[in-house]
């Protein structure tokens, strides 16, 4: 796996690349490179043996010019203040690129959740929710799931917030279970936007995704759904991996059967009829489409030189370092950037929030149709921006669109004396 590039520095470089194509005020650009505020705090909670443990937790509110802060909460040992700041910035640009009325936020706790029991995780999550209570709210900041969190944690946060506020406010958090105010289609939404982005990219390149060979790195929520939906489009998934390693079968395999194997055994490794590959081998396999769906910095400059895929669709946030991005642009590899490709999650989170506010649920069909419209429109806008500006790649084109929208909202709000 790649290098230790600081993701916050990567974000700032991406903004600088796009700013070179924009006539924006320097002061406003500085504002767009830094979060508005960051909460960094201790969470002290009781373990099952009665002892106390203290861990570090963060919430970054990056930019609220276009609406409430919005973004997930991650439980991972690698969580740092800078990682959370970067992820909150990517959320602000992601919401702007798909034109949904949110700013960006992100949170995290630096733990390995597999070290804790369910009751310990519940006490820890409720403790985080209590710390977040003054900052979050349906119109202020709306968290969601991210790596190693899901419906269970979202339900706990909603319940803690509603109990402390003595109210009903399901829209304070998204990614909830259906019976707790969640939306149809939310679990599949990120993978769905990855598959739609892949389809649009192949179309743009005058190529057919049917028959394209595909490798997917990371086989959690985003990666496994993307693989299944790309398979539905006729793509041929030939390799997948997770943190334990990868499997490869040049004849292709059924991504849903691999997921069932992972659910049963805890890993894709050992799937019948497939050879083992390391994660680095998977990233450089001779395939048409590569989908990095694990964590940041999966592909660094060195690995980028060996990537054989013609198209990369970023399911993960920040999977390519800026140097890798440059190498891939020079080599004419088409990269559909994370802020569009994985925006399905936040888009259906937005639909969930709309349904919560309306107290009216949509059908899964309506959710998927609206999502497709949002992603296809955003892709078309990206291509227009790519053609209108002399940018190096689709990522810079995306940032040009996103930054323009945020700067416009800031300018139109006018100045306070
Ligand atoms: P997840 O926890 O469900 O899955 C992560 C997967 O990556 C797991 O299979 C894990 O084993 C694998 N992994 C971890 N480290 C790895 C490594 N070094 N090499 C290979 N595989 C590794 O998480 P997720 O929700 O699928 O998120 C994955 C990425 O997608 C993250 O970057 C996240 O920010 C991004 N994302 C997720 C959503 C969402 O709605 N789930 C939305 C937008 C972006």
* Approximate shape: globular
Number of helices: 15
* CATH class value of the domain at 189-336: Alpha Beta
Biggest sheet layout: 7 strands, mixed
Could you tell me the number of beta strands? Answer: 12
Classify the secondary structure makeup into a structural class: alpha/beta
The topology string of helices and strands comes to HHEEEHEHEHHEHEEHEHEHEHEHHHH
Task: Give the ligands present.
Answer: nicotinamide-adenine-dinucleotide
Q: Examine the coordinates and then state which fold CATH places here, giving the name of the CATH topology of the domain at 189-336.
A: Rossmann fold
Helix content: 40-55%
Read across the widest sheet, the strand sequence of neighbours is: 9-8-7-6-10-11-12
Radius of gyration: 20 Å
CATH superfamily of the domain at 189-336: NAD(P)-binding Rossmann-like Domain
Model description:
This protein is α/β, with parallel strands linked by helices and 417 residues long. Among the domains are: 34-175, Leucine Dehydrogenase, chain A, domain 1 (Rossmann fold), CATH 3.40.50.10860; 189-336, NAD(P)-binding Rossmann-like Domain (Rossmann fold, 3-Layer(aba) Sandwich), CATH 3.40.50. Helix content is 46%, strand content 17%. The protein has 15 helices and 12 strands. It has helices at 7-19, 26-31, 81-97, 118-132, 151-165, 186-204, 221-232, 255-265, 279-283, 301-306, 322-330, 338-341, 344-358, 364-388, 394-413, and strands at 37-46, 52-63, 69-75, 104-109, 141-145, 213-217, 236-242, 245-248, 275-277, 289-292, 311-313, 334-336. The strands form 2 sheets. It has a 7-stranded mixed beta sheet with strand order 9-8-7-6-10-11-12, sandwiched between helices. It has a 5-stranded mixed beta sheet with strand order 1-2-4-3-5. Helix 1 (7-19) packs parallel to helix 3 (81-97), helix 4 packs across helix 5 and helix 6 runs parallel beside helix 14. The model has no long low-confidence stretch (mean pLDDT 95). Bound molecules: nicotinamide-adenine-dinucleotide.
């Amino acid at each position: 796996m790649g290098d230790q590039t600081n993701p916050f520095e990567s974000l700032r470089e991406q903004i600088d690349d796009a700013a070179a194509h924009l006539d924006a005020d320097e002061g406003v650009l500085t504002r767009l490179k830094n979060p508005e505020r960051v909460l960094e705090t201790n969470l002290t909670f009781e373990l099952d043996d009665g002892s106390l443990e203290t861990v570090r937790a963060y919430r970054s509110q990056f930019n609220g010019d276009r609406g409430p802060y919005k973004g997930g909460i991650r439980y991972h040992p690698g969580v740092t203040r800078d990682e959370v700041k970067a992820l909150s910035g990517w959320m602000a640009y992601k919401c702007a690129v798909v034109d949904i009325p949110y700013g960006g936020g992100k949170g995290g706790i630096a733990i390995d959740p597999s070290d804790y029991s369910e009751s310990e995780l519940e006490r820890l999550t409720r403790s985080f929710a209590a710390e977040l209570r003054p900052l979050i709210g349906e119109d202020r900041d709306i968290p969601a799931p991210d790596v190693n969190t899901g419906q269970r944690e979202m339900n706990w946060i909603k319940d803690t917030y509603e109990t402390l506020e003595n109210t009903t406010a399901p829209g304070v958090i998204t990614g909830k279970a259906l019976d707790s105010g969640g939306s149809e289609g939310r679990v599949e939404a990120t993978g769905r936007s990855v598959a739609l982005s892949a389809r649009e990219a192949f179309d743009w390149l005058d190529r057919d995704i049917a028959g394209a060979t595909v490798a997917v790195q990371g086989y959690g929520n985003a990666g496994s759904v993307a693989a299944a939906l790309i398979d539905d489009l006729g793509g041929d998934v030939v390799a997948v991996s997770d943190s334990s390693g990868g499997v490869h079968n040049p004849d292709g395999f059924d991504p849903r059967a691999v997921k069932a194997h992972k659910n049963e055994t805890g890993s894709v490794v050992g799937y019948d009829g497939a050879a083992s590959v390391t994660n680095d081998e998977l990233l450089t396999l001779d395939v048409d489409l590569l989908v990095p769906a694990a964590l940041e910095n999966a592909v660094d400059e060195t690995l980028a030189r060996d990537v054989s895929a013609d198209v990369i669709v970023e399911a993960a946030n920040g999977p390519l370092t800026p140097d890798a991005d440059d190498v891939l642009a020079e080599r004419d590899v088409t990269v559909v950037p994370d802020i569009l490709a994985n925006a399905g999650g936040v888009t259906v989170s937005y639909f969930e929030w709309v349904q919560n506010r309306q107290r009216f649920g949509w059908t899964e069909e309506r959710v998927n149709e609206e999502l497709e419209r949002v992603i296809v429109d955003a892709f078309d806008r990206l291509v227009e921006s790519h053609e209108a500006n002399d940018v190096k790649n689709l990522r810079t084109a995306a940032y040009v669109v996103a930054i323009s929208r945020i700067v416009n909202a800031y300018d139109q709000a006018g100045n306070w004396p």
